[in-house]
Design goal:
The protein has 322 residues and is of the alpha/beta class. The chain is built from 16 helices and six strands.
C-alpha cells in the first residue's frame, strides 16, 4: 500500500508532464457558416447526451463549450454507452482534459525520499489524538469489521484505504468519460490541452507539510462513505448515467472524494478550481467548439463552474444541477 501511494503521487507529476507534451499538438479546421455551425453543435449535444455522461452546452458568441461532468470509479455493472460520447468528441475542435502539474524528476524523488511522512502520523501520535471520541469509535468499528489498523497511518493513506480497499469503489470499473474522450481525441489527432493546476514543487510541499488536522474532514467523510457500503457506490454510477447530478453530488462517496486530497485540500483545491475556471473562460473566447471533461463536483457543485457561468449571463443548457 505504501508503494502504491507513492506511485500514485509520482503519477500526478508524470501525467502532468505528459499532458503538457500532448498539448503541443495542433490542428487547423475550416469554420462553417453560422447557421450550419449551430446545427452541428446541436447534433453534438443531442448525441453526447445519449452517452450517459451529463453534459452542458455553454455559448458565448461564436464559441461553444461542451462541458462534460466526469466521475471516478464508474462500476462496470452500470450500463452506459460511451460510443456516443466518442462520436461527439470527434466533432469538437479541441479538448480540455485532465489537470496537469508542472513537475520534475526532483519532485518525484523528494516524494519517494520522504514517503514515510505521507504514510504515517507524527511520531507518538495516533488517530485518537485528532478524531473526536465519536469519530474514533466509528473508525474502531470499521477496523474491527475489516481487520485493519488505521491508528498510526496518515489520514491521507487511511482515507484512501477506506475508500479503495474497504469500499472497493475503484475496482472492477468501466471506462470513465475522460478515458473515452482521450482515446477518441488521440486517434483523431484532435488537440488536447491539460488544465495546469500548479507546480510540482508546490504540490509536494503541501503533501509533506500538511498537518493531520487539515485532513480530519476528509477522514470523517471517508468513514461515512465506508459505513454506507457498496450500495450507494452502485447508485452513484446509475445516477450519473441518468443525469441525476444532485443525487451524485449528495452521495457519500462523492462527498468524500470532494473533501479529500486534492480537491478538498485548502491549498491545492482552490488552485485546481481556479485553473479550470480560467481554462473554460479561455475556451469561451475562442471560436468553434471546445469539449471540456472536468470533475462533476467542480462543474455542478455549489459555486461551481456552471453557477459561475450562469451568473455571468451566459446561456447554459443541459441537465439540472441545482
Amino acid at each position: 500500500m505504501k508503494t502504491r501511494l507513492v506511485l500514485t503521487m509520482c503519477g500526478v507529476a508524470i501525467l502532468g508532464l505528459a499532458a503538457e507534451a500532448r498539448a503541443q499538438t495542433s490542428s487547423s479546421l475550416t469554420q462553417a457558416p453560422a447557421d450550419e455551425a449551430a446545427a452541428e453543435v446541436e447534433t453534438i449535444v443531442v448525441t453526447a447526451r445519449r452517452s450517459g455522461a451529463p453534459m452542458w452546452t455553454v455559448t458565448a458568441g461564436d464559441s461553444t463549450v461542451l462541458l462534460v461532468g466526469a466521475i471516478d470509479g464508474v462500476p462496470r455493472s452500470v450500463a452506459w454507452r460511451p460510443d456516443a460520447l466518442e462520436a461527439a468528441t470527434l466533432r469538437a475542435d479541441r479538448i480540455l482534459l485532465g489537470t496537469g502539474v508542472q513537475g520534475s524528476l526532483g519532485d518525484i524523488l523528494r516524494l519517494i525520499w520522504r514517503s514515510r511522512t505521507l504514510t504515517r502520523l507524527p511520531e507518538g501520535r495516533t488517530s485518537a489524538d485528532y478524531l473526536s471520541p465519536e469519530w474514533q469509535a466509528r473508525l474502531d468499528a470499521l477496523e474491527a469489521r475489516y481487520r485493519v489498523d488505521h491508528s498510526r497511518k496518515s489520514f491521507l493513506l487511511s482515507s484512501r484505504d477506506l475508500l479503495t480497499d474497504q469500499l472497493d469503489f475503484d475496482r472492477d470499473t468501466a471506462d470513465d468519460a475522460g478515458d473515452v474522450v482521450r482515446r477518441a481525441a488521440r486517434k483523431a489527432r484532435i488537440p488536447v490541452r491539460a488544465v495546469t493546476g500548479g507546480r510540482g514543487d508546490q504540490l509536494v510541499e503541501d503533501l509533506l507539510t500538511a498537518p493531520p488536522e487539515r485532513l480530519v474532514p476528509c477522514m470523517q467523510a471517508a468513514i461515512e462513505a465506508t459505513e454506507a457500503g457498496a450500495g450507494p457506490v452502485q447508485q452513484r454510477g446509475e445516477d450519473w448515467t441518468r443525469f441525476r447530478v444532485r443525487a451524485v453530488l449528495d452521495s457519500p462517496l462523492e462527498k468524500a472524494l470532494g473533501r479529500c486530497w486534492p480537491w478538498g485540500d485548502p491549498t491545492i483545491g482552490p488552485q485546481l478550481r481556479a485553473a479550470w475556471i480560467e481554462g473554460i473562460d479561455k475556451a469561451l473566447a475562442e471560436p468553434g467548439v471546445t469539449m471540456a471533461v472536468a470533475p462533476l463536483n467542480l462543474v455542478g457543485g455549489e459555486d461551481g463552474v456552471l453557477d459561475r457561468l450562469k451568473a455571468k449571463g451566459l446561456e447554459v443548457s443541459g441537465p439540472d444541477w441545482r
